[in-house]
Design goal:
The protein has about 60 residues and is an all-alpha fold. The chain has 2 helices and no strands. The longest helix has 20 residues. The protein starts with 15 loop residues before the first helix and ends in a 5-residue tail after the last helix.
Length: about 60
């Protein structure tokens, strides 16, 4: 594995205030909005439609 440096996509440098805010949100994420809930419902229904189009394996 290559060492991480400032130009690596594996490393994100945050200012101390951003670092704190990032980890606070990870610890207690906000409740989902109605728009997010609707997106999950649309995605779930597309999975159901795809499953009904797939031929059964015997």
């Amino acid at each position: 594995m290559k060492p991480a440096n400032d130009n690596s996509a594996d490393v994100t440098s945050l200012k101390p205030c951003d670092h704190q805010a990032f980890f606070e949100v990870l610890d207690s994420p906000p409740s989902p909005t109605e728009a997010l809930r609707a997106a999950f419902r649309r995605r779930q229904s597309s999975f159901v439609e795809q499953a009904s189009d797939t031929p059964a394996k015997d």
